[in-house]
């Protein structure tokens, strides 16, 4: 395999002045499905939002397909009670560049656009991939994966259930023709039945050769889905596990918390 | 009240409502997308009117009027588009953007007004649309320019609605208004979409200004009254939907026309404000509003 798809090198970031994650090293190869697992509130979403270009990284490097996505150098921590430095500070990463490179992030608990209909949202979704080949194949994959969206195409997002909204979010991500699709807790807060339905859909997305980075609280789902698993704790990657050595739920808990609960 | 007087007052109220709708929609498009209140909206109306007046000086006849209106609208779109990058964009990530935008838009309004005064002087002007036609409505003669202003306002509003609901750019604009982060994650250039929203607001203001300038005299600070009226309309109707300020504008226009007829010019604003306060007390989100604020 020549070159990695996504490569994070000693990436740090947070919400100034609060540092959330530090020195994160993470790589995803072409055609790989990778999982990220860690306790609630330890900064997984913050890390992914940074990679997606929504918040500025403080230090380190984000490389996608060999190209650097964030500005060089360290973010100057200039915080003043008197002056608004934000006015002069340039963004260190642009979500638009990230999307254009093919790195698509599906936000956790994405509320999308409450007053737009499913159809309208799916209509503008491929804007990032317009003109590229494979759009119509992807459209038919999305139709196959989420037949329910067709039934609800005239409903406003506001009136969808959490699971349906999640389906729209994933569909929107897919329609951008991702070269890497990042799913942040796609099964959070869903009923067991819907959780199963979405897990199956995500497995089918992996089988369709879409490289994945998935965060989820459900270890069984994650270990069955991915080729590699990163454990994330207190803002850093603590270990990396191969498919061949995929541990059980209890073993992971021991690795994260010291002893099984 | 004789029936023909009633029809006359009603129609002038509806004509007024069309202009108010045009102005209020611009205000509410900015409010719903950029989350800021644009105090320069009245100055946009004035500048649009003056630009059209200038062009109509060298372009005679009804065709000249049409040309003046079109060029003024195009110019104001570009003007609003650029102005966004100067007075709103620098503050977009600031937590107190609402307050900052009050100050920057007020400043822009004052600069525009004084700029108009500098270029065109303080004397009152009027755009001559060269439309002398009158149309008969049940024995009441209505000026052609009145009907034209109503028709153009309705067409422009319909065009804007189609743009927002059907076109990819319009949908992207609504998306950015409803969830900025999600729109960024779809690869949209949100700053560009916001600038378009600001440009659209300036363009609709200009169109309203052109017609106001051909119905009455204009001076450099005449935008204050349209700004006030659009504010009343937006508060009265709410901004839950694209259409809510439009309905409200027609109600306000008709109420104003009848108050002027019955109570006189000086008391009409009091009636409107009383109405607005009553709505604020009973239904603070506006007559056609809900707590949502969307495009
Ligand atoms: N907008 C914000 N501003 C400031 N702090 C924030 C913000 N969002 C999250 N945080 C803080 O950052 C830390 C990490 O949160 P984050 O959402 O990244 O964790 P997470 O690992 O994704 O958790 P979960 O599994 O619950 O999704 C938390 O302590 C949280 O309180
Ligand atoms: Mg999270």
UniProtKB/TrEMBL annotation, chain A:
Pfam families: ABC_tran. Keywords: Amino-acid transport, ATP-binding, Nucleotide-binding, Transport. It comes from Hoeflea poritis. Residues 6-259 form the ABC transporter domain. GO terms for molecular function: ATP binding. Belongs to the ABC transporter superfamily. InterPro entries: AAA+_ATPase, ABC_transporter-like_ATP-bd, ABC_transporter-like_CS, BCAA_Transport_ATP-bd_LivF, P-loop_NTPase. It comes from the Bacteria. This is ATP-binding cassette domain-containing protein.
UniProtKB/TrEMBL annotation, chain B:
The chain crosses the membrane at residues 6-29, 36-53, 65-85, 97-120, 140-164, 185-212, 232-253, 260-282. Its main location: membrane. It is a multi-pass membrane protein. It comes from the Bacteria. The keyword Manganese does not apply. InterPro entries: ABC_transp_permease, BCAA_transport_permease. It is found in: Cell membrane. Pfam families: BPD_transp_2. Signal peptide: none annotated. The keyword Nucleotide-binding does not apply. Keywords: Amino-acid transport, Cell membrane, Membrane, Transmembrane, Transmembrane helix, Transport. CDD domains: TM_PBP1_LivH_like (cd06582). Belongs to the binding-protein-dependent transport system permease family. LivHM subfamily. This is Branched-chain amino acid ABC transporter permease. It comes from Hoeflea poritis. The lineage of its organism: Bacteria, Pseudomonadati, Pseudomonadota, Alphaproteobacteria, Hyphomicrobiales.
